Amino acid sequence: xxxxxxxxxxxxxxxxxxxxxxxxxxxxxxxxxxxxxxxxxxxxxxxxxxxxxxxxxxxxxxxxxxxxxxxxxxxxxxxxxxxxxxxxxxxxxxxxxxxxxxxxxxxxxxxxxxxxxxxxxxxxxxxxxxxxxxxxxxxxxxxxxxxxxxxxxxxxxxxxxxxxxxxxxxxxxxxxxxxxxxxxxxxxxxxxxxxxxxxxxxxxxxxxxxxxxxxxxxxxxxxxxxxxxxxxxxxxxxxxxxxxxxxxxxxxxxxxxxxxxxxxxxxxxxxxxxxxxxxxxxxxxxxxxxxxxxxxxxxxxxxxxxxxxxxxxxxxxxxxxxxxxxxxxxxxxxxxxxxxxxxxxxxxxxxxxxxxxxxxxxxxxxxxxxxxxxxxxxxxxxxxxxxxxxxxxxxxxxxxxxxxxxxxxxxxxxxxxxxx
Length: 420
Prior knowledge:
The chain is of the alpha+beta class. The chain folds into three domains: 63 residues, no CATH class; 188 residues, CATH 3.40.525.10; 133 residues, Sandwich (Jelly Rolls), CATH 2.60.120.680. The protein has twelve helices and 17 strands. Helix 2 packs across helix 3.
C-alpha cells in the first residue's frame, strides 16, 4: 500500500501520480474552485484506510469523488461565495454551539478549531428545522471549513485539515440524544460528512473532559461507522492536556482548557422553547396529502416528464427516516422503471438525503429548466424490518401557460389550484 502522505508536508511524487490517476478516471465534471491536488488526495487517503492494493484504492477513491461531485452540483457548492459561520442559519439561529476556526495551527499544519458542547440540544434542531435544511446547512458549514483549509494549503503548499478539539464538560445525556445515537442518525450524519463527502477534512477530533457515560453511545456509534472512526474521533478524560501539548503550543490553547490564549471565545447554542417548535402552517396542504407506503428494502419512484420550464414544489411527512432525492434522466434512455432504477445513470438535481419528516414536515421546491424525464424517489432500502408511511403532495407550475397541475404518486397529474 502506498504510504499515506502526512499532514504538514507537500504531496509526494507517488501521491501526485495517484491524484492524476483519479482525475483521469472520474466521470463527473470537477469545478476549478474545487479541483486541487490536496482535495483529490483526501479521497485517496480515505480509500487507503480500507484498501491495501493501489488499484483498489484508486477505484474506491474515484467512486467516492464522483459521488461527492454529484452532491456539489446539486447543492451548488462550487459557487464563489459560501456562507460564513455568521451567515449560516444553523449558527444564526444558535441551534449549534460555535467556535471560530483559528489561523493558528498545530505542528502538522492543521488549523485549530475549539468548541464547547455543553449547550447543544439535539431535540431543538429536530423540532425546529426540516431534516433537509439540517443537512444543507451542514453541507454549507463543511464547505466553508474546506475553503479555510484550502486557503491554508495555498499559503503553505502543505497538506492541512482542521484539528478539532471539543470540550464535553457539562454535556448531559437525555433520552432524545440516546435515540439520536441508537437510531443510526448520528452515524448517518458522521458518515455523510466526515467520511463520504469531506474525508480527512476534520481530523483528528479530540473530545476532552468526557464523562464515563459517553463511552456507551460512543461504542454504539462505533459499530455503525467505517474503519478509521476511533482514529478520527478520540476520547479523553480530564487528563487530556499532555496529549494536546504533543502537537499544539500552550499559547494556542484556550484558557478554559488549561492553555494561555484568553482571546478564544465560544458561542453557546440556545435551547428552543417547546412553544416555538415547528407546527403545521397550512392545514389545507395537510388535508390534501396522498398517502402511500414504501416497503422494507423497497423504493417508490414517481416518474414525470417536463416539456417546458416549470417549478416543482412538494410537501410530505413520514413516520420515520427515509431516503429522498430527485434525479434527471433527460432523454429517457436509461430504462428506469418503478421496479428498477439506477441512480448512478441519472443526474442528481436535488440531494439524496436520509431525512425524517415526522417532527417537522418537509417542504421545498426545484426549478425544472430542462425538458425530459424526472424521478422523485423515496427509498427504504436501509430498513429490514419497518415499512415507511409517506403523506405526499406535489405540484408543477408551467412557466409557458401559467398552469398548475398536481402531481400524484403514480406519476399522473391533474389541474389544481396552487397550494404551495
